[in-house]
Amino acid sequence: MASALFNIGKIPELKRRILFTLAMLAVFRIGCFIPTPGIDAEALMAFFARQRGTIFGLFDMFSGGALERLSVFALGIMPYISAAIIIELLKVVIPAIDRLYKEGEAGTKKIRQYTRYGTILISAIQALGISIALEGMGAGGGRPVVMAPGWGFRLMTILTLTSGTAFLMWLGEMITERGIGNGISLIIFAGIVARMPSAIIKSVELIKAGEIAPLLMILLIVMMVLVVGFIVFMERGQRRIPVQYARRVVGRRMFGGQSTHLPLKVNVSGVIPPIFASSLLMFPATVGSFIKIQWLKSIVDTLSPGHYIHDLVYVALIIFFCYFYTAVTFNPVDVADNLKKWGGYIPGIRPGKSTADYIDRILTRITLGGAIYVAAVCVLPTILIARFNVPFYFGGTALLIVVGVAMDTMAQIESHMLTRHYEGFMKKRIGRVRR
Questions:
Q1: Within 13 A of 253's CA, how many CA atoms are on the CB side?
Q2: Cα(first)–Cα(last) distance of the chain, in Å?
Q3: How far is 125 from 173, CA to CA, in rounded Å?
Q4: Which of 146, 203, 278, 433 is the most exposed place for a label (fewest CB within 10 A)?
Q5: pLDDT tens, 171-202?
């Protein structure tokens, strides 16, 4: 590991890419502390202290604390992700969008352009909603959050927050193009990881105060290492379906005849299912914080974290969205058609519909394992907080994102090092490549 890190400095291009990425992430973190005009920061912080279990708390986590300060990056990169998911879902119902996905680079550019337009539209709508909601908010004692409510404040908020999201979108694309890793994912990663120092300091203070036993903290650290290792194992897990290509003679050359495999990931849907499930579960709590109705308060209490009904509904929603999103993004019929077009077939399976059915059957089975794994990781924080009184949030969507982005970024760094004949982080695999 040490030698691999030392070798990074020997590759000028890789060094420049890493430094550029770190500089852009630093710009993002600085922007998280630049406030939107017209806001009483102390009153807003007091309001968000009561919103940890609502959808505001979820968005604040992904924005790295920018929402609770209502900084210029308060919306974060979530509008871009929402627009990308909407476009992804629309390809199922709109054939024209589905055709764009199959047109190669030209279609990808068009899809990216539509995603940007959608991001701006979603950002403007969310910014308007936030500005109107802020005008009706008050911290303890009726202290208003907005100093001068009205359309002047609303338009300024829309312009500020939309511009901030557009800048973050550009920042992410620049990191992807000129840096290392996926820029959008790294921005979310930086926002989540930025909360770690405060969690560590709080834990140390509780240990010194005697509220947490040192032995319990050691056991928690061991458990965290095991959970991270389990996530890495599952995220790299895949079912490899053997594929054989028939031999073809073109002119005087013979093509094909080789054996390969079709990799199917255990967790095809990634972190989208827990995000959808969390948003749906937190919606009643968000509405309940503004509308004081007794029956709604009962629903909010039942669906609050720590209640067994909340955990059961959360697990059911994650499993449902895992199957739903996998069905939307992975089409076994298209895969079977492409195999048939290029002369490929699965040994023992007839090309065409039989191949599609076979792939669909395997995908259905491994998706169940992936859904249970995602649900278990996402329910882990609730168990730790409720049963062991852990003072920090460990697990859930945040941990899946952090581990997944770290793995992808390290894989790209290793790829750069291998192409220049340097050792990467996985020596055994490199040894096999060299031989």
A1: 3
A2: 21
A3: 23
A4: 433
A5: 999 998 898 888 888 888 888 888 788 778 87
Phi, psi of 35 (to 5 degrees): -80, 155
What pTM does this model have? Answer: 0.77
User: What's the Cα-to-Cα distance from 326 to each of 31, 264, 266, 319, 363, rounded to whole Å?
Assistant: 35, 11, 11, 11, 9
Q: Which helix (H) or strand (E) is 369 found in, with range?
A: helix 353-388
Distance between CA atoms of 258 and 337, rounded to whole angstroms?
19
For residue 136, the 8-state DSSP code is T
**CATH class of the structural domain 225-390:** mainly alpha
Number of other residues whose CB lies within 10 A of the CB of residue 58: 23
Q: Helix (H, G, I), strand (E, B), or coil: what is residue 419?
A: helix
Closest among 135, 165, 149, 145 to 48, alpha carbons compared:
145
Asked if 194 contacts 67 with a C-beta cutoff of 8 angstroms, the reply is no
Torsion-angle region of 236 (φ positive above 0: left; ψ -120 to 50: alpha; else: beta)? alpha
Coil, helix or strand at residue 390: coil
Where exactly does CATH 1.10.3370.10 map onto the chain? 1-212, 225-390
Instruction: DSSP for 111-125, please give it.
Output: HHHHHHHHHHHHHHH
